[in-house]
Amino acid sequence: MIGDDEHGWSDDGIFNFEGGCYAKVINLNPEEEPDIYNAIREGALLENVVYDKTTRKIDFSDGSKTENTRVSYPLNHIDNSVYGKGQPSVAGHPEKIIFLTCDAYGVLPPVAKLNPEQAMYHFISGYTAKVAGTERGITEPTATFSPCFGGPFLTLHPLRYAELLKEKMEKFDVSVYLVNTGWVGASAQSGAKRFSLPKTREIINAILDGEIEDAEFETDVYFRFQIPTSLGDIDSKLLNPMRAWNDPDHYRTTAEDLVKKFQKNYQQYDLGDKAVHRAGPALPN
After folding, report:
1. What is the pTM of this model?
2. Are 189 and 248 in contact (CB under 8 A)?
């Protein structure tokens, strides 16, 4: 691990310039997220949590203040991090890039492979969704877009950063995947649970060790990227949202609504690059 959020990609490789980590801790489970749990020690800063004033034991399941409970901690609190091993937070060029998103509408698949133009489009879009408890006033799933996953920090047009991403992808032969850690087969508003964290880890491992490259792929009807038809012991039905939903009509209307949100957002960044525009989602004919 090089770092948590903010990284740069130079001619020499990847580097971190944030120096710490910022994680949600609502319902934190030491078995599912041992690194974050073990990082909560002297030097960490907790926000919005409830704890016993006598024992000082934290109740991670208590969301009475807000569901947006958080912890900040330095990189060396993660034993497996490069910095935690006493080395600078730098590395060579990546072999794989993973865009993480939390789709609260249940439309995006748990994993998809992107071609260079699709990677540019989704990098420019920077899509995720806010859910109840993420921010004050949010009571239902709300799509949010932050160009290049870091809109407030951009000094150039997002297309320029996307062009740089494509250049480096092609120069260093890097594959790009989109991983949805949110909902699959139903929306957050339905009361369904988020996609299994252990299954997400299995997907990440399959990307990193190359197993996913041996899979057969099919094309997503709305987003037109490639979805593996099978992967490890994950139920193949979950890999394609069209089959994961129990109500096909509800899936169709929800998917069409999300496509329109993507298209509306992209209009403000469209400088006429037709290849990137065509790489975005579209309604089936």
Report:
1. 0.86
2. no
- In 3D space, the residue among 112, 114, 99 whose CA is nearest the CA of residue 146 turns out to be 99
* pLDDT more than 90, % of the chain: 86
Sign of CA dihedral 91, 93, 98, 99: positive
**Integer-rounded Cα radius of gyration of the chain:** 19
What's the pLDDT score for residue 194? 92
Domains and CATH numbers, the chain: 7-91 (2.170.8.10), 96-278 (3.90.228.20)
Q: What is the pLDDT of residues 19-69, one digit of tens each?
A: 899 999 999 999 989 999 999 999 999 999 999 999 999 999 999 998 889
Given a contact cutoff of 8 angstroms between Cβ atoms, the answer to whether 219 and 109 are in contact is no
Pair 26, 67: CB distance under 8 Å: yes
Per residue in 83-95, pLDDT (tens digit) is: 999 999 999 999 9
Query: CA 273, CA 166: separation in Å to the nearest integer?
Result: 13
Q: How far apart are the first and last CA of the chain?
A: 44
CA distance 58 to 184: 31
